[in-house]
Amino acid sequence: MLTTPDLTESGLPTQEALRRFHDQGFVHLRAVLSAEEVAGFRAAAEELLADEGPAIWGASEDETQVHYVEAAWRKHPALRRLALHPAVTRAAEHLAGGPLRLYGTDVLKKDPDVHLPTVVHDDEPGLPLAGLTRALTAWIPLADVPADRGCLIYVPGSHRRPLEHRQVHLAGFQDYRPMEEIWPEFPFNPRVAVPMRAGDVVFHDFRTVHMAGVNTDRERRLAFASVYMDSDATYRPGVQDHPVAHLAPGAPVDGDRFPLITADPGAIS
Question: How far apart are CA 52 and CA 128, in angstroms?
Fold first, then answer.
């Protein structure tokens, strides 16, 4: 691992990085993965995209915000290693302050001048889970993401808004209300764009508001996202339930499909 201002010699986020995460709701850690690792993970992601085809929920390619392959960690051994990579998972647990399980992963691509902007959102509505206090996402670019390639844009401190100001556990997508309706201050809050190098990781809290612009660069934006949840989370029916639909409401979300992220010694073999 490279030495960076964001990580200690043992590979954990520094106290300053930890402070930024709790204050801002996101933190950009540089050079978490080596160039050699990134090259292997990118090749795996490209292979999976070619094999799987688009998952775009009934829209055409140019009508979607991002083209993705979900559950990627269960579909390619290299991407399993990435989802459970100790440099990523140890940082995630350090930032979260407690034990975590892997909930899900996506390979994400945003092609130049094809895909729409990623709308303003947080990750809470897509998690049909109860008992969440420390869930977070690790967003890992597998190619450089300068500002004009559709980098992530965050609203600092938005994760600390009142709990009732949320879009979560809706009866259906027809019940969706724009974020600015439930949080009227949103259009006036500062936003921070986070350009990234391949091998960096940005972690964000599951309630941090974020978005991304159109990719106006010549190169594809390719990334991998892992969602980690509280280790004792339970199933609460929502609208994106397919990963947990086999469970009864209130059941623990655990087992082989949702491993403890520090409990798999073969994860990087």
Answer: 25
CA distance 200 to 28: 7
Q: Which of 140, 150, 142 is nearest to 47 (CA)?
A: 142
Residue pair 170/125 in contact by the 8 Å Cβ criterion = yes
pTM of the model: 0.89
Looking at residue 147, the DSSP 8-state letter turns out to be G
Per residue, what are the HEC states of 158-204? HHHCCCCCCCCCCCCHHHCCCHHHHCCCHHHCCCEEECECCCCEEEE
Tens digit of pLDDT for each residue in 118-154? 778 888 888 999 999 999 999 999 999 999 999 999 9
Q: Are 154 and 196 in contact (CB under 8 A)?
A: no
pLDDT, tens only, 70-110: 999 999 999 999 999 999 999 999 999 999 999 999 999 88
Per-residue model confidence (pLDDT) at position 102? 98
Cβ 141 vs Cβ 82: under 8 Å: no
Within 10 Å of residue 98's Cβ, how many Cβ atoms?
11
Q: How many CA atoms does the CB half-sphere of 91 hold within 13 Å?
A: 35
